[in-house]
Amino acid sequence: MKFQSVITSTGEWLRGEGPHHQIVVSSRVRLARNLRNRAFPGWAKKAERLAILDLIKPQVEELPEMQDSFSEVLQDLSAVEKQVLVERHLISREHAAKSIGSAIVMNRKQTLSIMVNEEDHLRMQSIRSGLQLRQAFKLVDKVDSALESKLDIAYDAKLGYLTACPTNVGTGMRASAMLHLPGLVLSELINQVIQAVNKIGLAVRGLYGEGTEAMGNLFQISNQTTLGEKEDEIIARLSKVIETIIEKEHDARQVLIQKKPNTLWDQIGRAYGVLTYAHAMTSKEALNLLSIVKLGIDLGTFPEDKRLPIDELFIETQPAHLQKGTQQKLNAEERDHLRAEIIRERLKTVPKPDMSKVAREPASGNSEPAKHE
Amino acid sequence: MLCDVCKCNDATVFLTQILDGKMQKVNLCEACSKEKGVQDPTGFALADLLLGIGAAEEIEKGAATTRCPVCGFTQADFKKTGRLGCSTCYTAFAEGLSSLLKAMHKGIEHVGKLPARAQRTLALNDRMKSLTEDLRKAVEAENYETAASLRDEIKQLQTELANPS
After folding, report:
1. Cβ–Cβ < 8 Å for B48, B30
2. What number is the average pLDDT over the span A31-56?
């Protein structure tokens, strides 16, 4: 499978409609694994990294889940190609910085990606649309079980799976969900939520994980500890917290509709206006405005069938995605013009916001039927 | 009270963080608190700070010369990178790591997934325990025929345990 065919199709998780997909953009579960008695990638010399890669990559490619997969060593990917994969959350920013001795293998649907020689020898990740942490774990757990029968995986009876960083030891699992929370941000309740979540040992991060800014009202929430708790307990705890946040977000939106309708319509109208008419736009501004339009779709001010075209813009207007189509590298100014052009073109198909279509409901939580995993 | 990091200046910054009901306290002097970024409460996590302190303490205990027998990693390398060298480092630096893991995680023992291989070893060990007990009873009852066959079975099991496939 060629890189070109990877980037022409959007990942299943973006198109899919998992439970609570209006608020939960995606669910991801990753497992970290290492070979016994082999230097971790950060400590291994180049020759050893290559030897480890030769051991692991063929086994990964042979997985039934990886039939019809995209598999590439990192030095054969251009900087833009790597960045495209980062923007789709298929590889980490850390992995994109690697070159000789590291590789990425992923399936066509882009629901499973396996990084070889990231911080650990193996980083296996499954990504799903909506709140589907359990399903994401199931897939990556199956792949892990298949690989461990072929590879000598570092495991200790007391400490569990051994990882390069002690923060991952034990299950080696990080489960996370990307949440879209414009209601909580607009009503200035988001910091309270973040603090509460931090207090119970979960982490809240920005769009691209550790140390990144929250843009487009998107927040990643994940488990922080990996030792002393079972995988399904971690996932159950996280899912419960996420369901509570979803409820709070719905409540915040209803309060805004009832108490501050003018502020809300003003925000949606301005976002629509700027996206429709601007000729230069940074990716941060684009994300923030698209977030408000997405909120407008959730509330009914824009037709439901515009959801996918708008959702796609979140990814398509990211810097590397803009440049994948053009042959030459664009500077920041050129990118801002191109971004605005793509957005204007897309917005032509979106009618003006119609505030009378908003569904009002008592602010008691879920507008979607309660679905449990 | 002295600073937990440099151990020479008086501590003037006192931090307490409650994580999962466990309280963690750190006392720092002015200079160390600045260096660790404590002044900026938004970007500060006590666990990260504890990680650095834990590693530093271990080095002071004279363990700095310990090398991992497999990969040659030292505690000084750990302090620098925050990552270990290989899976055996967990055994080589077990002492220093245990307090660190305690501060970082919910528990100190893995309770999650077992690889199939570990499950097999676990099952064999259980079988070994019950066979040994049966053997003891058989000998006690002077039932030597049973004892002999149990002894053979134990021998067989020992070779299986010694050769994990």
Report:
1. no
2. 95
Q: Are A127 and A89 in contact (CB under 8 A)?
A: yes
Same domain, A83 and A150: yes
Residue B65 is given by DSSP the state G
Domain termination residue (choose one: A220, A252, A284): A252
The answer to the question of residue A35 being in a domain is: yes
Please, are residues A203 and A159 in contact by the beta-carbon 8 Å criterion? no
Q: Would you state the structure tokens that stand for residue A9, as one six-digit string?
A: 């199709």
Paired with A156 in beta bridges are: A160
Looking at the fold, whether A67 and A199 belong to one and the same domain comes out as: yes
Q: Give residue A195's identity as a one-letter amino acid code.
A: Q
Spans of all domains in chain B: 1-41, 45-112, 116-162
Other Cβ atoms within 10 Å of A63 Cβ, number: 19
Nearest-Cα residue of chain A relative to residue B106: A228
B113: contact with A, CB 8 A cutoff = yes
Nearest-angstrom CA–CA distance, A164 and A156: 14
Quick one: B84 exposed, middle or buried, by C-beta within 10 A (0-12, 13-18, 19+)?
buried
Compare CB distances from A201 to B20, B90, B116 and report the shortest one's residue. Answer: B20
Q: What phi and psi values does residue A107 have, to the nearest 5 degrees?
A: -85, 165
Lowest model confidence (mean pLDDT) among A9-13, A29-33, A353-357, B101-105: A9-13
Test mutation, B16, B53, B86, B122, chain A, max A CBs within 10 A: B86
Percentage with pLDDT > 90 across chain A: 76
- Please check the confidence at residue A182 and state whether its pLDDT lies above 90: yes
**Domain-ending residue, one of A227, A252, A277:** A252
User: How far is the C-alpha of B63 from the C-alpha of B78, rounded, in Å?
Assistant: 12
Statement to judge: residues A219 and A292 lie in one domain = no
Q: pLDDT tens digit string along A232-266? A: 999 999 999 999 999 999 999 999 999 999 999 99
Q: Is A219 helix (H, G, I), strand (E, B) or coil?
A: strand
**Which residue type sits at B73?**
F
Enclosing H/E stretch for A107: strand A103-107
Assess whether A172 and A106 both reside in one domain: yes
Q: Apex CA A330: angle with CA A324 and CA A333, to 5°? A: 130
- Chain A residues whose CB is inside 8 A of the B67 CB are none
Determine, yes or no, domain membership for A362. no
Give A241-291 as a DSSP string.
HHHHHHHHHHHHHHHHHHH-HHHHHHHHHHHHHHHHH-S---HHHHHHHHH
Interchain proximity A225–B105, CB inside 8 Å: yes
Residue A368 tokens read as 């979607």
Q: What is the pLDDT of residue A162?
A: 97
Is the backbone of residue A217 left (phi > 0), alpha (psi -120 to 50) or beta?
Answer: left
Tokens of A363: 């602010």
Q: Is A277 within a domain?
A: yes
Task: Indicate the residue type of A15.
Answer: R
Which residues partner with A104 through β-bridges?
A72, A115
| Domains of chain A: total | 2
Q: Residue A194 pLDDT more than 50? A: yes
